[in-house]
Design goal:
The protein is mainly alpha-helical. Among the domains are: about 80 residues, Arc Repressor Mutant, subunit A (Orthogonal Bundle), CATH 1.10.10; about 70 residues, GidA associated domain, C-terminal subdomain (DNA polymerase, domain 1, Orthogonal Bundle), CATH 1.10.150. The protein contains 11 helices and 2 strands; from the N terminus they run H-H-H-E-H-E-H-H-H-H-H-H-H. A two-stranded antiparallel sheet has the order 1-2. Helix 2 runs antiparallel to helix 3 and helix 3 crosses helix 7. The chain is elongated.
Length: about 240
């Protein structure tokens, strides 16, 4: 049976398990949000988007419920795109709120892009929707507001997760011999032998294992792969 593994950027439980495996615990472990480098993605409002796929895959969730979740986020994404392309006439209460926060920034523009306007900390999505004469359900509005307000931070976090996924996809052979890796520090060799990380990504998070150690391990794995390919080709010729 395929093991069920939650990654660090998928759930706080994934952070907890990964920390205990790769870093150990010499004293009682407490799960603080500060331990998670992807906490902007690990929000309570998007838990369904992160985890419902696993529920469906493991028979814990109906297809109908999963499709309702997908529809909710498709509609929220549509709202983000719509707001990013529309102009808002800045008047009335919206103008007053904006003017109060623009001391020293000059006059308030007559019109502003809805997406750019929503990025201002004092402006909420309901201010923008009211100015546009739109009525949107609360769930969709909350998701869209979060995505627009923190777009830059969220995109950087997602780029980090994509890099981590690439590292996690590079598996370490089960029988890998760390004693055969020339130049590996004694501390790194001992911890890698004891913990036996399954992927390069997991190995990078082990305390005492630095990037130079990871590079040596990757070179050794690639060397083994080349030797295996060469042996296979020679056997094929025979």
């Amino acid at each position: 049976m395929k093991p069920f593994v939650l990654k660090r950027y998928e759930a706080y439980l994934g952070v907890l398990i990964d920390d205990l495996i790769t870093k150990g615990a010499d004293e009682p472990y407490r799960m603080f949000t500060s331990r998670a480098e992807h906490r902007l993605i690990l929000r309570q409002d998007n838990a369904d988007r992160r985890l419902m796929g696993y529920g469906l895959e493991n028979g814990l969730l109906s297809r109908e419920r999963y499709e309702r979740m997908e529809l909710k986020y498709r509609r929220a994404d549509d709202l983000v795109r719509d707001l990013s392309s529309r102009l808002v006439v800045v008047e009335g209460a919206l103008k007053e709120k904006l003017a109060g926060s623009r001391q020293g920034e000059g006059t308030v523009p007559v019109k502003m892009n809805a997406g750019q306007l929503l990025k201002r900390p004092e402006i909420r999505i309901w201010d923008v929707l009211h100015a546009l004469g739109e009525e949107i359900d609360a769930d969709r509005a909350a998701i869209a507001e979060m995505e627009i307000k923190y777009k830059g931070y969220i995109e950087r976090d997602r780029e980090r997760t994509r890099k981590m996924e690439r590292m996690e996809s590079r598996r370490i052979p089960e029988s890998f011999d760390y004693t055969a890796v020339a130049g590996l520090k004694n501390e790194a060799r001992e911890k890698l032998r004891r913990i036996q990380p399954e992927t390069i990504g997991q190995a990078t998070r082990i305390s005492g294992v630095d990037p130079s150690d990871i590079s040596l391990v990757m070179v050794r794995i690639e060397s083994m792969a080349r030797a295996a390919r060469k042996a296979g080709a020679e056997n094929g010729d025979d």
